[in-house]
Automatic annotation (TrEMBL):
<dbReference type="InterPro" id="IPR012460">
    <property type="entry name" value="DUF1667"/>
</dbReference>
<dbReference type="Pfam" id="PF07892">
    <property type="entry name" value="DUF1667"/>
</dbReference>
<protein>
    <submittedName>
        <fullName>DUF1667 domain-containing protein</fullName>
    </submittedName>
</protein>
<dbReference type="InterPro" id="IPR036593">
    <property type="entry name" value="CPE0013-like_sf"/>
</dbReference>
Amino acid sequence: MAQTRIICIGCPKGCAVTVTHEGTTIQNIEGFGCENGRTYARNEFTAPVRIFTSTVRVEGGSSALVPVKTAGSVPKNMLMECAKESCRITAEAPVHVGDVIREDFCGTGVALVATGDAS
């Protein structure tokens, strides 16, 4: 059996959680200080996800770039693809906080939204 060590970010404690596994099958999870830690470690081991943040170009606006983030989590293994795609996007001014820049960003089913303004 193998072990994978994961630092939990489910709460401020930052527990060092150990996942004991055979291949992709989890045998045991230990070291978590709360139920959030167990859940986080299981999810991080089986299907890690992240919120993607970046900027996109703005055409005709008060600033050349506007900050953006995904409205939900995307698979961690897609972050580079998301970064490349965000470089290809240009939004038309005006852009306001919460505006959807791209509905189904990179085929994830998650929207890319503005987190800043560009008038």
